[in-house]
Amino acid sequence: MQEQTLTNKITAHWRSFLVKLEWTKRRHPMLLVGIVILVFMALLAIFAPLLWTIDPTAVDPRNRLNAPGSQWWFGTDFIGRDVWSRTIYGTRVSLAVGFAVGAMSAVTAAFFGLIAGYFNTVDLVVMRIMDAIMSIPHILLAIALVSMVGGSVPIVIFAIWFVTFPRAVRVVRSSVLSLREEVYVEAARAIGAKTPRILWYHVFPGTIAPLMVTGTLIIAGAILTEAILSFLGAGIDPETPAWGSMMADGRRTISMAIWVVGIPGGFLTLTVLGINMIGDNLRDILDPKLSRSGS
Amino acid sequence: MQRYLVQRILSSIPVLFILAVIVFAVLRVSGGDPAAIIAGKDAPQWQIEAIRNDLGLNKPVYYQLGIYLADLLQGDLGQSINSKKPVIKLIKERIIPTLSIAVMTELLTLPISIPLGVLAAWKANTWVDRGILMLSTLGFSIPIFFLGFLLIKAFALEIPWFPAAGYVKPEDHFGNFLHRLILPSMCTAIIFWAFLVRMTRATMIEVLREDYIRTARAKGLAEGKVLIIHALKNAALPIVTVIGWGVAELFAGIVVTEQVFAIPGMGRLIVDSIVRRDYPVIQGCMLTIAVLQVIVNLLTDMSYALFDPRIKY
After folding, report:
1. Which residues in chain B are closer than 8 Å to A246, comparing Cβ atoms?
2. What is the DSSP string of A257-292?
3. Phi, psi dihedrals of residue A78, rounded to the nearest 5°
4. What is the mean predicted confidence (pLDDT) over A6-27?
C-alpha cells in the first residue's frame, strides 16, 4: 500500500515535469538549448581525465602545429601540446571562475543591495563607492588587482568579483527601493516587525528574480573577463590550461594554424552563448516587466 | 542652464575623489615594489632603499596619499617612475589612437544598430525580430580578442583588404590612418552593437504601444514617418543614455583591441604600466578615463534637451 502511493507520487511528479518541459520547449526553446550547452560543458569539465585526454601541459617539440586529425583530434600547438586535452581541461577554469564569481556576486549584492535600498543614509555612501568602482573599466581594474597580487584561481575570482558585483548591487537596490513602499511591507512595519525580519521575509524574496537574471549574466561576463585576463597574460599562471592563454599562445601562428586559436575560441563563445541564452529566457519567464523595459 | 552645469560639475568631484582613493588603495595595498623592479633583479638592498627614498615610497601610506591628492588638486599627475616623463605628457601622446578608435567605433555602431533595433521592434515577435535578437546575443557572447583574430585571419591574411596590425599617425597619412582603424573598430563595435540593438528595440516597443502612435497611424501617416518621427524621437532618451553609459565599457574593449592589433594607445600604456608597477601612470590613466566618463555623462544629459523640448536646465 505504502509502495503504491510512492510510485503514484513519483509518476505524478514525472508527469508534471514532462508537462513543464513541454511548455518550456514550446515557449522558450532557447532556454533548453542553453541548458543543454551548459550541461555538456559541465560534463566535459567533470570527466576531463576520462575523455581520451593526455597531460595538457605535456610538450612534444617533434609534433608542433599538427593539423587536427585522427591522432590529435584538435591538432597541436607551437610546442606540440595537444589542443584537445588543453581545451577540455580549460573548461574547468572557465566554469569554476564563472560560477564562483556568480555566487559571490549574488550573495554580496543581496546584502549591500538590501541595506542600501532600505536605509537612505547607507545608500548615499554605498552607492557612491559602487559608482566609483563602476567608472573604472572593469578589465583594467581586474588586471591591476591580479598583477599586483599574482595570478592564481582564487585571486582571479576575487578580482573579477570586485569589479562586477557593483552592477548586481544596483539591480537589487533598485528593486528594494520599490519593494519597501509596498503595502505589505508597510503592514509588517505597522504591526511592529523588526527590521531584519522585514528585510528577510518581506523584501528579500522580491529581489530573487532580478538577482537570478543578473547572476546568470554575471557568470557569462566573468567567463569572458577571465579569458581576457588570461589572454593579456594577467590571469591565472600560464601553466594551467585556460582558453584565454591558449589563444594568446596561438596568436603568432594564426596564419598557419588557425585551430590553436579557433577551437578554444569556439568553445568559449559557445559556453558564454549558452549561459546568455539561459539568462535572457529566465528574464522573460521570471520578470516580464524587466524584459519589456529591456534593461 | 549655467546653474545646472555648475551643479553637475561640483557633484562629480566627490565621485572622482573616491575614485582616486580607491585606485590609490588598490595599487598600494596590494603590494608589488616598484623600487625593486627599477633597481633590477640583483640590485643590493641599499640601492633599492635609495630608490624607495627617492620616490617617497618609504613614507607612510596615508602621507603618500595626502601628497598625491594635493598634487592632483593642482593638476599635477606626477611623473612616470619608469621613463621619468610627466604622466600628462605620456597620456597626451597615447590618447589620440584610443579616442580615434572610440569615435570610429561609434560611427560603425550607430548607423547599424539603431535601424536594426527599430526594425526588430517594428516586427516584434516575428522571425525577423528573433533573428536580430539571436545575433545580438551572439555579439554579447563572442570574446573581442577572438573576433579580432577571426577578422585578421579573414580580412588581412586570407583576403588582404586591410593591414593585420599597426597604427599610422593621422598627420603622417590620413588615409592609411583611417584604413588601419577599421578592423580594430569593428572589433570593439560588436559588444556595443549588441547592447544598443537591444536597448533600441526595447524602448521602441514601449513607445509603439502609446496612444499617439495609434493616432498617427489612424490619420493615415506613412509607416516610415510614424516610426522615425513619432516613435524614434521619443525613444531617443534611453538610447542616448546607453550610448553615454558605455564609455567605461568601450575603454575596456579598446584595451583588448589595442593589444590584438598592436596599436600604441592608452590601453597598452596602462597594461604596460601595470606590469612595470608604474603607479603614477596607472593612476593618471584611470583618472583620465573617469573624467572622460564624467564629461560624456554631462553631454548625455545636455543632449536630452535637444530631443525633448520639455526638458530645460
Report:
1. none
2. -THHHHHHHHHHHHHHHHHHHHHHHHHHHH-HHHHH
3. -70, -10
4. 81
Q: Specify the DSSP element, H or E, that contains B190.
A: helix B174-208
Residues of chain B contacting A293 with CB distance shorter than 8 Å: 202, 206
Give the pLDDT band (50/70/90) at residue A271. very high
Q: In the Cβ-directed half-sphere of A177, how many Cα atoms lie within 13 Å?
A: 11
What value does the mean pLDDT take over residues B248-256? 81
Question: What does the block give as the cell for B123?
Answer: 516586427
Q: How many domains does chain A have?
A: 1
The continuous run of DSSP H or E covering B10 comes out as helix B2-29
Cα distance between residue B213 and residue B35, in whole Å: 66
Digit-coded pLDDT (tens) for B82-117: 788 888 888 888 888 888 888 888 888 888 888 898
Q: Give the residue numbers spanning the domain of A78.
A: 31-294
Amino acid present at B301: D
User: Can you give the CATH number for the domain in which A282 is found?
Assistant: 1.10.3720.10
Is A17 a domain residue? Answer: no
Note whether A128 contacts B18, CB cutoff 8 Å: yes
C-alpha cell belonging to residue B80: 612616470
For A:167-196, CB contacts with B below 8 A are none
- Contact pairs from chain A to chain B, CB under 8 Å: 147
Residues B35-86: pLDDT tens digits?
766 666 677 777 777 777 777 777 777 777 887 788 777 777 777 877 888 8
Please tell me whether residue B127 adopts helix, strand or coil conformation.
helix
**Residue A15 resides in a domain:** no
Q: Which of residues 193-232 of A touch B (CB under 8 A)?
A: 220, 224, 227-228, 231-232
Assigned domain for A166 exists: yes
Cell 610538450 belongs to A59
ipTM: 0.78
Q: From A27, which residue of chain B is nearest by alpha-carbon distance?
A: B125
Radius of gyration of chain B (CA): 24
